[in-house]
Amino acid sequence: MTVAFPSSDARLADLAPTLLRVAMGGLFLAHGALKLFVFTPAGTAGYFQSIGLPGGLAYVTILAELLGGLALIAGFRTRIVALALVPLMLGAAWFGHGAAGFFFSNAGGGWEFPAFWTVALLVQAMLGSGEYAFDKRA
After folding, report:
1. What local confidence, expressed as pLDDT, does residue 6 receive?
2. What is the pLDDT of residues 111-120, one digit of tens each?
3. Residue-wise burial string across 52-90, b where 16 or more C-beta atoms lie within 10 A, e elsewhere
4. Could you tell me which residue, 133 or 10, shows the higher pLDDT?
5. Which of 61, 69, 97, 107 could form a disulfide with 29 if both were Cys (CB 3.0 to 4.6 A apart)?
6. Is there a contact between 104 and 116 (Cβ–Cβ < 8 Å)?
7. Do residues 111 and 94 touch, judged by C-beta distance below 8 A?
8. DSSP per-residue letters across the chain
C-alpha cells in the first residue's frame, strides 16, 4: 500500500518546522524545569563544578533552556534562538555526557541525544519558524 502526500502542498510542508520547534521548545522547558525544581539551581551548579565547568554557567543554562523553550514554542526569533541553543547542546554532549559513551541509556547518559538535538536545532535554524509563529505576525 502506498500513501502519497501532495508534494505541492506548501501548508503541509510549513507545518513540519512548526512541529519541530514546538516539540524542541517543550523539551527545553522540561529540561530547564528539571534543573530548576528537581535538581535545584544550586545542585545543578554543583554538578557543573564537579565536571570542571563554572558553577555560574548552570544558572545561564537554566535560563537559556527556559527562555529558549518558550521562544521556540512561540516561534519568536526562531532561527536566532535555535542557533543560540546549539552551544548549549554541544556543551551537554561534550562535558555533560561525553564520558558516558554514545548511548543515552548508559549510566550518566551518553552523548547521542544532545548530538541529535544539536542537529535538530541546526535544521530548525535552516527551516525557520513555520506556521503559527510570533515571527509570522510581526
Report:
1. 57
2. 999 999 999 9
3. ebeeebbbebbebbbbbbebbbbbbbbeebbebbbebbb
4. 133
5. 69
6. no
7. yes
8. ------TT-HHHHHHHHHHHHHHHHHHHHHHHHIIIIIS-HHHHHHHHHHTTS-THHHHHHHHHHHHHHHHHHHTSSHHHHHHHHHHHHHHIIIIISGGG-S-TTSTT--SHHHHHHHHHHHHHHHH---SS-HHHH-
Residues in the chain: 138
Cα separation, 129 vs 66, in Å, equals 18
Contacts of 119 (CB under 8 A, 6+ apart): none
Domain parsing of the chain, residue ranges? 16-129
Lowest mean pLDDT: which of 25-29, 104-108, 117-121? 104-108
Q: In the structure grid, which three cell numbers stand for residue 59, read together?
A: 544558572
